[in-house]
# Entry
Amino acid sequence: MLIVNKVYKQHQKLWDGCYAMIFGEENSGKFNNKEGMVVWNRKIYAENREFMEQRVRELLKQNVDSILTSSLAGFTSLIGKHKPKAKISIVFVPLQGVKIGGCDQSMFVLDLMDTDYDLNRVLTEGFPHEINHLAYEPTRATDPDRSTALLNTIDEGLACYYTYKYFGGKITKHRAVENMTEEEWDWYMRNEKEIFTKSKPYLLESSEKQTPYSCNCGMHRGKKLFEEAPRTVCYWLGFRIIEFYEKKHGAGSWKDVYELPVREVMAKSGYEDYINSL
# Structure
């Protein structure tokens, strides 16, 4: 009953609406019912006790409450009216796929079982990125293109751009976009025209459709439009669109993106005109 009440029911939307969905039908039963949750929760600590206790010690050293409070205060100070609302879950799960993030604006998860990241960087730089998603996505409820790959692109690009602005120049653009290296950023810049030209036909497709572009966004899997791309194409492309919007409309105008339909953001950014001039 402890597992059911404290682990499953306390975070049921996360298990049912996120983990049970992203890991496929063959794994959904591990997360979307009491019995499945009990089976792996009874085993995971017994089999990974030393590792899990070490990870918790690492987490406690980070002063998570202070980092999160600072991130929230920084968002309020910079953006103002849009306030994120979500339940935060810190978890150990048997399948890795969500390091930090969630499946909608009501949830925020940090998976300590996954060690393929620097915990301090994820907390200090990942929190601002995810907080922006939690605040921006509710504003898209009436956007005519809310289900398109363009919205995913602007959503991810804005989260990266907000993170860049949040740190006030203390981190580079490439670091703000998926913690890229300078060399990785340079690859995107060298291939900018081809990236946009090949991506454009898919931007107004459904974000749920398995297109060569959409598989570069979110949880989609499949053939990528750019196999050689070092990171996720739509994060970088969204960042560039918003960067051009601010260049065209003046300092601070990037905040318009929280209010505008994504198609209007794209049109007013002047980014396509820039691409056509190359």
Notes: The chain has two domains: 2-139, 142-277.
